[in-house]
Amino acid sequence: MPDDLTAAEAGMWQAFQNGSRYDLSTGNPQIDDPHGVRHWGEERSVRARVVCMLLLNGPPALDGRVSAVKLTGLLISDYLDVAGGTVAPYVEFKDCRFEKEILLPESRFTTLRFLNCSIPRLEAARLQTEGDLHLPRCRVHRGIRFTDAQIGTDLLLSQAVVHGDRQDRTINGDGLSVGQDLQAELIESYGEFRMRGAKVGVSLSLRGSRLVNEPGKYALNAPQLTVERALYMTPAAVSDPVFTAGATPARGTRIQHFECRGGIRLDDGRVTDAIDLDRARLLMKEHHEFSLRRIQTAELRFLGERPESGKVVLSGAKVTNLRDQARSWPGPGHLEMKGFAYENLIPVDKFPLPARLDWVEAATPEYHPEPYERLAAVLRDTGEDSEAREVLLAKQRRRRETLPVAGKLWGYLQDWTVAYGYRPGRAALWMAVLWALGGYALSYYEPDAMKAGEGPAYQPVLFALDLILPVMNLGQDGYWRLEGTWQWLAATLTLLGWVLATTVAAGASRLLRRG
C-alpha cells in the first residue's frame, strides 16, 4: 500500500483486495444524493489517480477473494483517466460524484457499471467491454462519446439524463456496436443523440424516453442504423425500467410516452423485426422531419399521436407489414412517401377506404401515380378488387386536375358515363339504355333491303342490338340500307357500343383473373 494514501483511500485499497464494497454514504438521502448541492468533504473524497492504480495495476487479492472496485457514495477528484489501458477487475461506481471528466478511450474492460452517478463528461471512443456497460440514472452534464465503441453484451442507459457538449451532442454513438440489447428507457437527452452506422445485436429500446433538440435539426440522428430485432419508441412503466425493461406496462401502471421534440433520422437503416411507434409523441417544428428514407423492416407500427408540424418522410422505404391507424398520420403537406413499398396493410382501428385515399392524397401535394398504384396492388393482392378499382378511379380523377381544359372536359365525360372503365356495371347500364333508345328510334323507320327479296324480316330492336354489340352478328346488320340521319344514328350506336362493350369486357376480365 502506498504511504501517501488518505484514510478514505486506504479503506478503498483494502476493500479492493477483499473484493468487497466500499461505502462512504451517510444514510441521509439528501446528503448522499450525488446530484444534489450538499458539499462532500475530504472524508468522502479519493483521488482519481489512486482509483486508476487499482484499475490498471492493483495489488493481488487476498486468499480466497476476487479483487474488485465497488465504490458507493465517493467523490472522485481530478480526471479518471485509463485511456488505452486494460482493466481486468470488475468495476462498479454507485451514487458517486466525479469532479472532472472520465477518460476511457481505447481502453478494455470486462464489465463496467456507473449507477446513479454525477459525471461531467464521459469520453469512451473505441472502448471495448467483454460484458455490460451500465449507466442507469446517471446525469452527464457535457455529453457521452461512444464513437466506434464495442460493447460485448448489453448497454444500459435507462433513466439517464444527458446534456449536450460544445457541439450540442448528448450521446455520440457513431459506429457503436452493441452485442445484445441497448436499453435507453426513460432517458432525457437535451441535444443531438447520434448513432450513425451503429449496430445493435438484439433490440434498441427508447421506451418512455424524452429527446429534446428543438433548435437543431435532429433529436435522434441515426442513419444506417442496424437493429437485429426491434426498435421501440413506445410507453414505459415509470416504476423502474431497470427491472421492467422490454415488458409491456401492466394495466393501471403509470406510464410515460416516448416523446421527441425535434427531428428523427433513420435513413438507410435496417430493423429486422419491427419499428414500433405505439402512442409515440412527435412534437416537431416546421423544419423538422421524421425521416425513414429507404428504411427496411418487416413491420412498421405507425400508431403514435398525429404530428401537427414537421414532415413524416417514407420515400423509398420497404416494409412487409404496415400496421397503422388513420388518426396517426399527418395531414396534407406533412407526409411524403414517394417510392414507399409495403406488402400488407394491417389497420388496428377503423380505416375506411375514403380515409386511406385521403392518406395517399396527403402524401402527394402534386399528382403522382405511384402511391395510388401501390395501394391498388396491395388491395388487389388481398382480394379486395372493388376497392382496388376505387383507388385507380381516384387516381384518374386526381390526374384529371393536371390536364388542360379539353382534357378535363373529356375526363369528366368519361367519369360520368363509365367511371373511366372502373365501374363496368355502369357501362352495362348505359348499353341497355342505348339499346332501348336505339330500338325505339329505329321502330319509326323501315329501311330498304340491300338486295330485294333477300335477308331476314326487319326487327328494329334486334337491329339496334346488332349495331351496339361488336363482333357478334344477330342477323340484322348488313342487310338494310340506311340513309341520311339514320345512317349517322347507326354509326353513333356502333361507336358507342364498341366503347361500352370494351369497358364491360375489361371489368369481366378482372373478375375472371381474380377468380
UniProtKB/TrEMBL annotation:
Domain of life the protein comes from: Bacteria
Membrane-spanning ranges: 488-512
Keyword terms, alphabetized: Membrane, Transmembrane, Transmembrane helix
Name of the featured protein: Oxidoreductase
Organismal lineage: Bacteria, Bacillati, Actinomycetota, Actinomycetes, Kitasatosporales
